[in-house]
Amino acid sequence: MDRGTRPGDNRRFMSVKRLAQPVAALAEPVLDPEDVRRATELLEAIGADRALLAEVPLPMRQALLIAAGRASRPQSYQEKRLVKALRRGRRRRDEAEDRVARAETGIRVAREAPVFVPPSPAGPAGLRDEAPRELKKPKSCYVCKAGFTRLHHV
Questions:
Q1: What is the pLDDT of residues 52-107, one digit of tens each?
Q2: CB count in 10 Å sphere of residue 106
Q3: Of 70, 106, 125, 141, which residue is 20 to 30 A from 27 by alpha carbon distance?
Q4: φ and ψ at 150, to 5 degrees?
Q5: Exposure on the CB side of residue 83, measured as CA atoms within 13 A
Q6: What mean pLDDT comes out for the span 1-29?
Q7: What is the dihedral of CA 41, 43, 47, 49, to 10 degrees?
Q8: CA 62, CA 41: separation in Å to the nearest integer?
Q9: Domain chopping of the chain, boundaries
Q10: What is the largest CA-CA distance in the chain?
Q11: pLDDT of amino acid 79
């Protein structure tokens, strides 16, 4: 056995530095709305009259049809990735709306003031007529732990 190493000592293997992915590889491509509009018009024209493809060279025509097929019939992992991205965006938007609604409640506004004055249980006179705000995702009451979506004392 080598001097200075013990059975099970794998520190020399753990020192391998992993290469970080380049930032450009992580950036999502952004679609220009004008390019999307032109591509849509082109595909609609081809769908209406396939004879338009006769004038396009064979390799370019094949590449166009393959790309259109991939876009219209993505593989399952690509479809799942799109659905997850849409859900993530919707969830973040709902969380942001809930955060804003909670930040505008009377107690939170009072906490931000230089001198804390707790809001009265009846609420300010101007706010009693307003309909209570609803949260998208239920929160738990810190006292009784029951779920709630309607904010009072707004």
A1: 888 889 999 999 988 888 888 877 887 888 899 999 999 999 999 988 888 877 77
A2: 18
A3: 70
A4: -90, 125
A5: 7
A6: 54
A7: 70
A8: 19
A9: 31-73, 76-154
A10: 83
A11: 80
Length of the chain: 154
Structure tokens at 77: 């992992």
Going by C-alpha positions, the residue among 50, 76, 73 that lies closest to residue 61 is 50
pLDDT at 18 over 70: no
Where do we find the tokens 């709305």? Answer: 33
Residue 120 has pLDDT above 80, yes or no: no
Structure tokens at 8: 């099970």
pTM of the entire structure?
Answer: 0.44
User: If you search the block for the tokens 């952004």, which residue do you land on?
Assistant: 30
Burial status of residue 96 (CB atoms within 10 A of its CB: 0-12, 13-18, 19 or more): exposed
* Alpha carbon distances (Å) from 101 to 5, 70, 93, 104, 153: 60, 42, 12, 5, 12
